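Fig. S4 source data, part A: sequence.
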Amino acid sequence: VKLEEMYLNFKNDKICFTEKAAINDAIDQVNNQYLELKNLYASGYATLIDTYQKVQDAYYQYFIDPSSQYQKAWQEYYNYKEEYLKEKVRLNNIINSTDATQLEKIVAQSELDAKTVVYESKKEALNSIEKTTQDTYNLIASAFETAIETLDNIQKMLPDEIKTLTFNYLNDTEDKVNQFKDTLCEEFETKYKVEIEQFRSDLAKRKSDLQALIANSNN
């Protein structure tokens, strides 16, 4: 999920970045009547480049990097959840068994309750870390949004031919838009190939484990 969110952020930021890059190139052709605005835009564009990279790096660092606090908390939660679900099936079998003694059922219920408390605490810890991490990331991402807003305000004061340089204007056909998206997807998949393959492998294992667990619980 975090990798998908990262791609959506990457795509949306890249669209904004594409617009501003085109304007920054075109603004050099504007006459010196707009010299002050040209300088302001150039300065704002430099800030945009810097914040764009910081936003990309921050999201990876906080949510995707295996050594991040979020990923460690998620892995700890998932590993315990996997074991907890197996134990839940086993203990419920005892609790619901007609062959188990009342004492065995009480012990099984007590053990299940204790494991559930630990499971919920790990889940809450993960949610707390995710929220804190997201808040920290949002502060960095807001700098990119501010840089975009600054350039948008300057753009409004530029000649009409510059104002029209939007993403839709630059990619005025469906083929161009699709080509842009394909290139963007390839760029993202190349940059994060290792992470994508690892997450796909993890997902396949989780599905396999879940299928085995369901099969065992039905036996």
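Fig. S4 source data, part B ends here. The helical segments are 2-26, 35-64, 69-95, 102-155, 160-163, 167-170, 174-191, 193-218.
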